[in-house]
Amino acid sequence: MVEMYLIRKDVVKRVVKFEGVLRADSPILVGTGERGPIKEVMKDLEGRPMIPGSSWKGVFRSSGERIARRKGLKVCSGLTNDNCLKNGGLDKVFLNSLRSDMDQAKRIAWNNTCINCKVFGTISILGQVRFLDSISQDFKLNTRAMTAISRKDGSVVGGALVTLEYADVGSRFPFTLFTYNLPNYALGYMILIMEEIHNHLVQVGGNKSRGFGFLSFEKLSMEVLSGDQSLPKLDEDDMEVKGSLDLRNLSGKEFFERAKPLMEAFRNVKISYPS
Ligand SMILES: [Zn+2]
Hints:
By secondary structure, the protein is of the alpha+beta class. Helix content is 29%, strand content 22%.
């Protein structure tokens, strides 16, 4: 039986923090979601543009979905109507066992959810990652008038103009991700997702079809805040990583080069769930 640290909140075996700086390589528009003639960038109370932690979580989950499927893993999208517990017809049984039999609830969750449900959370289960809001201290805001294009068929909507506000190329966003009880392979999984962002395979925010949303890591660090620094196998499924992994204060390029053993752990792992 695999130790279920990856879903446990009551035992802290390992806390790993990723911290870095992202540079906008294209305009970035993470909007407020309000409709109207002006699409504004989400800002904090002092007017600084931000990428909220919830956006990061969505970007990581959807990018992770593609990476996990490429490896042949079964993953859900995490939506209300497509999540592992519901797809397995177990959502009600799980909720009942949460109230009556915690051990059974853990077994149900462990055996019947995918890596994304475990890492990012699902209905009634908290995830094992926490993304902080990325509030820029070094930015330039700009606007651009554009013709509104119908989402349905791509036609121009009556020649209407919308004004888009965006954080311009060169703006910098801090990035902080805390992870709890992630085995080596799951740390590798997070790094593979970050590498996809860095390599412009993933866009963040709106107006992707107009080439918005590309960022790269100017700096990136990984630090074990709690637990064994040498990153031993965390559970039965997990993989050993060879050599010492000093991943502090690196450029993005160096970081992804040196973090290869963790990415390999994800590529080579055979995980025992969902059973
Ligand atoms: Zn799932």
